[in-house]
Specification:
Structural class: mainly alpha
Number of strands: 0
Shape: globular
Strand content: under 5%
């Protein structure tokens, strides 16, 4: 809700949306202390990305100037929640030997990069990009996409997760693109091949190559 209302603010310029996003963000900033459970890396990845985007969107007016919607205290309060609750979960995932399907690593990296941009943290940005390119995890460019065919590590699982993974890759590539870094064209336009592979399969074609990927 915070993310969608912040998008509406950016599109319409109507403060009612920004104020609702602020209400939600500040409430979480006041309340949320920890994440628990085996899926906390997914929780941190899915929700952290949206909260970071919402916070940055309402920090500014649609024309790019700083808005008066959030006070500095409120802005820092939400940032502290992201740093103290979400970031440690992401860092722990990066520091843990690989144990998951690729969408986990991709969702963690997407949020890690979103935090880096929100906080103007160049070291964080480079760490996230390095993991995406060379990390020992299924959620990296080399391990998630077969550069020859576009098949992904989760293609043989089911399409919800397969498309989730390439959607996260698209977000990662776009975050980097806005910083002047082209991840789209790497490995012979592997990302494009993954989207085309998925699209062709879901259109009903049965002529796609398939091989086991671990």
């Amino acid at each position: 809700a915070a993310y969608l209302n912040s998008l509406m603010w950016a599109v319409t310029g109507e403060k009612v949306y920004a104020n609702k996003a602020k209400e939600i963000l500040v409430a979480y900033g006041n309340k949320l202390k920890r994440m628990d459970g085996a899926d906390q890396a997914l929780l941190g990845g899915f929700n952290g990305f949206q909260l970071a985007y919402a916070l940055e969107l309402i920090r500014y007016n649609p024309d790019g100037s700083t808005s008066d919607i959030l006070t500095d205290t409120e802005f820092n309060q939400v940032n502290n929640m992201l740093r103290n609750v979400f970031l440690p979960v992401l860092e722990e995932f990066y520091a843990t030997p690989a144990y998951s399907n690729g969408n986990w690593g991709l969702t963690v990296t997407r949020t890690y990069l979103a935090f880096a941009l929100l906080w103007d943290d160049i070291d964080m940005y480079h760490k996230g990009i390095k993991f995406y390119l060379t990390g020992n995890d299924n959620g990296t460019l080399n391990n998630y996409i077969d550069a020859e065919t576009g098949q992904t590590q989760e293609t043989g699982r089911e399409q919800a997760h397969a498309q989730l993974g390439i959607g996260q890759i698209g977000s990662i590539c776009e975050l980097a693109w806005k910083q002047g870094d082209d991840l789209y064209s790497l490995n012979g336009n592997a990302v494009m091949k993954a989207f085309e592979y998925s699209a062709r399969y879901n259109m009903g074609y049965d002529d796609l190559p398939f091989k086991m990927m671990t």
